[in-house]
Description:
- The chain has three domains: 2-78, no CATH class; 86-95 and 361-465, Alpha-Beta Complex (Aspartate Aminotransferase, domain 1); 105-354, Type I PLP-dependent aspartate aminotransferase-like (Major domain) (Aspartate Aminotransferase, domain 2).
- It has 18 helices and 17 strands.
- The protein has helices spanning 11-16, 18-27, 31-50, 63-79, 105-116, 138-145, 156-168, 189-196, 211-217, 244-253, 282-287, 313-321, 323-327, 332-346, 356-362, 365-382, 421-429, 456-465; strands at residues 86-88, 123-124, 129-130, 149-153, 172-176, 182-183, 187-188, 199-203, 222-228, 258-264, 292-296, 307-311, 386-398, 401-416, 434-436, 438-440, 443-447.
- Helix 10 (244-253) links the parallel strand 9 and strand 10 (258-264).
- Helix 3 (31-50) packs across helix 4 (63-79).
- It starts with 10 loop residues before the first helix and ends with a helix.
- The model has no long low-confidence stretch (mean pLDDT 94).
- The structure holds pyridoxal-5'-phosphate.
- Pyridoxal-5'-phosphate (PLP) is lined by residues 155-157, 160, 183, 187, 228-229, 231, 262, 264, 296, 307, 400.
- It is an enzyme of class 2 (transferase).
Amino acid sequence: MKQYLRQLPAIHELQKDPRFKSLETEFNLSDVQLTEFLQKEIGKLRQSLLAEETLVKEKVPDFAGQLFNLVEDRISEWQKDRLERVINATGTVLHTNLGRSRLSATSIARVVKTAENYSNLEYRLTEGKRGSRHDIIEDLLVEATGAEAAMVVNNNAAAVFLVLSALAKEQEVIVSRGQLVEIGGSFRVSSIMEESGARLVEVGTTNKTHLFDYEQAMNEETAMIMKVHTSNFKMIGFTETVETAELAALAKKHHDVIFYEDLGSGALYDFKKHGIGDEPVVREVIESGADLVSFSGDKLLGGPQAGLIAGKKELIARLKKHQLARVLRVDKMTLAALEETLKQYLGDPEKINELPTVRDIIRPAAAIQVQAQSFVDRLQSESSNYHSELMASTSQIGGGTMPGVEIPTYVAAVKHHSLSSEQLAARLRRAKPAIITRIQDDRVCLDFRTIENTEMMALVAGFVACE
Ligand SMILES: *Cc1c(COP(=O)(O)O)cnc(C)c1O
């Protein structure tokens, strides 16, 4: 194949080819950029001819045509979004793999404004002096949680790490064996504790831990009692855990022992009102006497990824001063999104539906049914390759929140006339935007709890394109 090397076109020839300009226009590239793409592809073609990997059948191969095709593929591959938008048709509102919470429109607007401009992130406007980003939205956090003080770090895993490192290093932390959980994506309470330098003292058994178990483990080395939300699993049957108020009271009896609760999700909205789960709202936990709590920004709260820590002023002050607070700090866009999210909780309760996460969780099944039915009808009229029908089902909340809670929903259950459900689901994942479904009883099911009306067209188009 080496004899073909001399037939490879020169760059200046390719640059004169009309296809050169048309690719530039199509992909909005400069001469220099397109030339670089072409050089790379020629280089690869040359290598493969040398290595005898490319088989050439023609006597006079159309290398130029081949190169322009290769370059076109390469450019569109390069230009596409890596972090891609998807349609979440799983009905799981807090799908960790799909990015958890969607932000509200006002949060998004604030993120854009903050990204576009300079801000007072670490600047006190009245004094013209350096300020701290840890103070920027503290008043809102305090108002929302009822705690004395609060701060924000990168995520809740970071919050747990900071609390343990700053307040319990080389000291003992008592945790119930029933709460030494592992949360999806490698967050293990026991490992985080080990990394932080705190010594874990396990008490009780897997299914039962009593107040006296904690009492007996307390000594002068005890820095903290920690309670962990058993996020992604639910124990049923012969179980016992100690209530927040009892643990808080026990910690109080021992001078200097901190009671810290990792809430995982940390709801500010009372979903119990709608008969959904039994998640305490953060304010209730603070009122029960917790010295410190931490929770995620992008789980039930429905904001950006963040770890929120709230509690006693003196403890928060120590956390803010710790070196790790600098390591784990959040970006200005996170603070902007979080500020708007918190304002939505503190504002008009009627407008709580403007937070997509809250709205989707409490969304009535009847509204979902209407949407699912309209999809079934539209798919039927657009394509004869599918059989689809409305089916009652349940959605999960996800994100390691409210384990075991199933909320009634409606799905469109779809079968393709020749593709298997797995094949269809795989094709839907390659649609633009990708459509992520769940398979149930050998049917591709779309749970409309997590689908916006504005996504309906793209959804139907995605199915039609799969034929
Ligand atoms: C989800 C969760 C975490 C981790 O929170 P991230 O915000 O995802 O870092 C920690 N602890 C508990 C109990 C959780 O449920």
